[in-house]
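Hey,

Quick one before I head out. I ran the complex with 5'-O-[(L-methionyl)-sulphamoyl]adenosine overnight. Inputs first:
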Amino acid sequence: MLRPPRRLFPPNRAAATGTGTGLDRRLLLSTPIFYANGPPHIGHLYSALLADALHRYRGLRGAGPGRLSTGTDEHGLKIQQAAAAAGTSPPELCERISGLFRQTLTQAAVSFTEFTRTSQPRHQRAVRRFWGALRDAGALYKGSYEGWYCTPEESFLPESQLAESRDAQGRLCKVSAESGHQVHWTKEENYMFRLSAFRDPLREWLRDNPRAVSPEPFYQRVLLWLEEDLPDLSVSRERSRLPWGIPVPGDPTQTIYVWVDALVNYLSAVGYPEEHGGWWPAAHHVVGKDILRFHAVYWPALLMAAGLAPPQRVLVHSHWTVRGQKMSKSLGNVVDPVGCMGRYTVDGFRYFLLRQGVPERDCDYYHEKVVKVVNSELADALGGLLNRSTAPSINPSNTFPPFSQSCFPKVSDYRETGGRGRASAEDYELLVSVASLPLRVATYFEGFQIYKALECIALCVRQTNSFFQRHQPWKLNRQDPSEKLWLDTILHVTLECLRVYGTLLQPVVPHTADKLLSRLAVQPQERGLSGLVFLPRYHGEPCPFEGRGLGEDSGLLFHRLEKAKHQWVGSREL
Ligand code: MSP
């Protein structure tokens, strides 16, 4: 049954179903704030691109006001040690690395509206106020704490999260089971947070909000954690050991634990403690799986203790490996995103990471895969289709050609045409696919499955190429009036498909989508998702593009990438 809907979006499913996805209201989307101990790598960029694509998508849907926050995590032992190792001071190291992150994210077209550095006074003030709220609520107490501390993870780890290994000298040592980093026995007087009191409130929060942690396997993981031991959390360090951090208000002998400091960035980004009211808790945090416990257990508990609601959603992604190996400085296989953007272009690399990155599982990065995906889907399929359907030889008037209903009659079932038109069953299938595409894409974006949205778009592009190929419009004779009608109709349908693809691809490949839409003369105010209509002429309604002159031909939409023989990453050949 063919029923391409006229308006491709329902009014607002979030509002209609009360699912609270935040599409109708204000929303803070966030990336994690990045440790300022080393330059960005592609894993960091992936976190940021996911958040950016969601933020851009919301903007195109005309949802309520949105903010995208990012920044750098600048305190703690890890930074203090990295600065010492680099022979510099923590503030100098942070200044340099924070600048690198800002530059890389800007270059990658991450449309952040806030960039928080935890060394900024406005953030530090928010942390002190948040600490005060915890203290006033009776959620803190001073206790003697001892346990295994993992500096790279900035975390005390329980026995259940430890494994045995050998250090550089071959001596037996304890390491974090998750990251493999060595842990050290640490004993000190700390402020403790009554995390253990929050087991039931956390369970309730998760039970009442089944989409609070996505995808589902991570939600289940958090529920399991809440079945295990939930000891109170040490939330300060002795200042004599850790001077690089925010002092505990009223106790200058202690420094606030770097994770409490860092998590509060989500509040300071929206003006806590004075102005956050209009925004909080409408927050969606994009985080990697390694920092899930901090975001789905500690953070909601801290917020509840401070009298605030937990964030609406925690969106979790897995990790990028490089040729099957974990990325690490010691293996020398850390992939530099700036190099990648230079080699594959900004949009090419954005497309690759978002198309191939599956939040539920780790994904492998290697050069040949980037070239293959980007060349086949962006350069050949999408770029080729635009090129073929706008070539002067096939479209000499350089306008958006008219659609003929006699060539492509409207039917509720293809079999009813009785052979009247020239369109085939597959052509009707194409219409159904493209008409339903925006809604499918919406569902995938809301479900944090951007890769699936891109897969659907890529399939439709392929279907449109087959449509074009099937009818061989270049063989039709423009001088013959009936052939011209059909030729124009083929071009009209193709350009309509391209317009839908360009519109939907804006959150992922903003520059390429802009080039595509500009070539089709789609004006900025016509690029939103809420008013997106596909092929209105099929329904006998006017099409604002029909007869319009096309935009300037600014060359190939996307240049094919070179298949370089070798690629160097860090100090190794990839
Ligand atoms: N500073 C903390 C976050 C504090 S948020 C209140 C931190 N920083 S990080 O720089 O180590 O990591 C930032 C993000 O990059 C995390 O989401 C992390 O999961 C992600 N990635 C780090 N390595 C990664 C891969 N190899 N692959 C994908 N993302 C990974 O954690």
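The first strand starts at residue 27 and ends at 30.

Talk tomorrow,
K.
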